[in-house]
């Protein structure tokens, strides 16, 4: 169990390192946000799994599960809100987008008499 815990801790640390490198090295905001959320959450889940195997205490396991659930919920919502705000502020490089569904939604709002923020 200790060897499996060590492997999970190292793998989680590696994912967190990859996320940090991605935030520094990737070219645009959306790519950086992707690097900051997905590998970081997976790394956290691996580290927490390693801690759970190492500690084997039921009271600690509940707290670790709570940490993972909160991290998964908050990182997804916060990255979505930052991406949407940056898109509306024209900070996203449109030449790197493969599919742009938000532009269609914003154009539909403009035809309904709403501005790009959804206000009349």
From TrEMBL:
The keyword Transmembrane applies. InterPro entries: PhaG_MnhG_YufB (IPR005133). The chain crosses the membrane at residues 6-24, 61-83. GO terms for molecular function: sodium:proton antiporter activity. Keywords: Membrane, Transmembrane, Transmembrane helix. Belongs to the CPA3 antiporters (TC 2.A.63) subunit G family. PANTHER family: ANTIPORTER SUBUNIT MNHG2-RELATED. This is Monovalent cation/H(+) antiporter subunit G.
């Amino acid at each position: 169990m200790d060897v499996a815990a060590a492997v999970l801790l190292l793998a989680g640390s590696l994912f967190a390192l990859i996320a940090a490198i991605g935030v520094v090295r990737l070219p645009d905001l959306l790519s950086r946000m992707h690097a900051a959320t997905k590998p970081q959450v997976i790394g956290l889940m691996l580290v927490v799994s390693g801690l759970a195997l190492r500690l084997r205490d039921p009271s600690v396991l509940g707290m670790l599960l709570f940490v993972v659930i909160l991290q998964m919920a908050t990182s997804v919502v916060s990255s979505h809100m930052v991406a949407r705000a940056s898109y509306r502020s024209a900070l996203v490089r449109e030449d790197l987008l493969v599919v742009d569904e938000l532009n269609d939604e914003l154009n539909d709002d403009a035809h309904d008499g709403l501005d790009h923020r959804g206000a009349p």
